[in-house]
Amino acid sequence: MTEAFIRDLNPTSRNRVLEAKIYRSWIGRNPPDITEKSYHAILLDRQGDAIQANMEVSEKKQFTTYLIPGKTYRISGFTCTPTSNWQQTLENGTSLSFTRFTKFDSIPSVGFPNHYFRFISYNRLPYKVVDPDDKSQKAYPLLTDYIGCYISSGEKEEWGNPNKDQMVLRRIEIQNLNRNSVELTLWDDLAESFPKEKIDALEKPVIIAVSSCRVGRFRNNLQLSSTPATYYYINPAIPELTQYKAEYKAAFDLNPPLQVVRHPYQDKEQEKMRNRIPFSKLLTENPLTHTDVRFTCEGTITGLDTSREWYNFKAFVTDTTATITMTFFSPKADDIVGVSCQALVASLENPDPRDFPEKILATIGKRHIFQFHYNTNSRQAPVTFILHRILDIPETTSQITDRPSASRTIEQSSKNIEIDVPEEQQTTATVEYSPPATSPPCPTPLLSPVSQVSLAEPELATSIIPVSQPTETPESPKWNPLQEQNIEGEEIQAASPTYTYMQTRSRHGKQVAMQLAAVTGSTPATEEESLSKPSAKTSAQETTKSTTAKRQLFQEKTGDGKKNKKE
Fold first, then answer.
1. Following DSSP, what letter does each residue of 178-219 receive, concatenated?
2. Is there a domain that residue 186 lies in?
3. Do 62 and 160 have their domain in common?
4. What backbone torsions phi and psi does residue 95 show, to the nearest 5 degrees?
5. In a domain, 59, yes or no
6. Does any domain span residue 117?
7. Where is this region: Disordered (predicted)?
8. If exposure means fewest CB atoms within 10 Å of the residue's CB, which of 169, 189, 215, 365 is most exposed?
9. How do residues 270-323 score in pLDDT, each as one tens digit?
């Protein structure tokens, strides 16, 4: 047999001997299917090259005692084959095939590299996105390695239906030096074993490297999703680690990243305090860094921008630190105005889009808990925001009688049963809840407000500001089998979801489902400290109610009278 390096091997190579280090190992699956399809490992040689080895799952028991990450062997009795595109982790076009005739002889671990990565930058991620609607036969992109600064992580969540399949997920925010954030979703074992508390306690900045991920896109936001081959490493022992930490420290000392919660709380009181960040801080941030992030504040409307039409009016909202401009779209604005746009227009003899009705003028001085997000459609200064909803407006409770439905007519039943769609399921900017099983009644087509949000008026704005207003002080924010090593200063390794303004149901379940479709398999443990998490979010039940098509505040012109009458 001939000694060989990984770079010398090709699919026709035979009778070779290879000295290599076991870098990673995992079981190939297609979650949520629990069927184990294959067994795999990545090997490194002293020259720093990598190659994947494949085994039949029926022979897994024979190899689990050898394929332990960190172990080094002189390996013989293997064959070389072309690399399969399924869950392809490496660019190497040659893979190894191990059988019961493969022999492993232990050797010293001196001279082998600690890691093997092929990182790509944030701006290259779009080239790794797979379109789920593209049914053409073509090679899938290589799984992705990514590195950045660990910003925050959420708690583990369950996703799925107990009558079908369920999984566990955990979301992690990773940010690069350009302040581009990407969400990494860990699934199952990776999500379960992720040591969130230990990582959060580390000295900042914390560098996280993640391997073999799928890249997806939801609502035009890039996302990473773990696969069975995924490992992640905290402060990995790579030559560039010191340089990366110094660069992030310099950037974050100058302008620390915001610690935001990107997904809603189920508890309404917690949701009222989510991302309670002062206006003075929000005005200094790059809106694109916080796309689809919901912020909250307890503020007062101190004036109106009367240079625009009142169908989608802009108001000046003040907290204790600064004043921001917030755009109010219907139907969200109905809660604070106290009447729908349709009813307001009907009550006016001569509705002039620039003559503000008294009911809108009466909003000046009102104090509420606002939930809002950045207006990322506008590329012009200053920074502006869009109302998502009012959080301190009491919700209408459902009234359901206890009489059997068979004892009265359908018309009578509809009068006694009123089901309100919760505010949490009326999404307008980011998908936060699971989609309903069936589609709700289709509303009257309305004009999209995107162009109105992004356009800047050339004329000077005029404002209506009261002479005196009561001031209140807002509430202060309230704020696996793997063995772990010493967390401080040491490496931790883990084994193996366009703002529409009109949406009345959430599509968060679609986001999770798209990520789930890309996931395949489970990752075994390594000797280094591991961080792992599966993904699973429970689908929310659809809640429907009888609705009457309403004219939205941002609709520029009155709809067809005949059509409205018919509805």
1. T--EEEEEEETHHHHH--HHHHHTSPSS-EEEEEEEEEEEET
2. yes
3. no
4. -125, 165
5. yes
6. no
7. 399-441, 520-567
8. 365
9. 999 999 999 998 998 888 888 888 999 999 999 988 887 777 888 999 999 999
The reply to whether 229 falls in a domain is yes
**Look-up of token digits 């008294």:** 358
DSSP 62-123: HHTTT--TT-EEEEES-EEEEPPSTT---S-SEEEE--TT-EEEE---TT--S----B--GG
- What's the total number of domains in the chain? 3
Q: Rg of the chain over CA atoms, in angstroms?
A: 28
CA dist 300 and 465 (Å) reads 12
Percentage of residues in the chain with pLDDT exceeding 90? Answer: 41
- Assign residue 192 the CATH number of its domain: 2.40.50.140
Cα–Cα–Cα angle for 36, 38, 40, rounded to 5 degrees: 125
Question: Do 253 and 278 sit in the same domain of this protein?
Answer: no
Whether 233 and 361 map to the same domain: the answer is: no
Shortest CA distance to 324 belongs to which of 377, 289, 282? Answer: 282
Domain that includes residue 376, residue range: 274-394+420-438+449-473
Longest dimension (CA), the chain: 96
Q: What is the mean pLDDT of residues 158-175?
A: 89
Phi, psi for 468 (deg, rounded to 5): -140, 150
Q: Is the pTM of this model over 0.70?
A: no
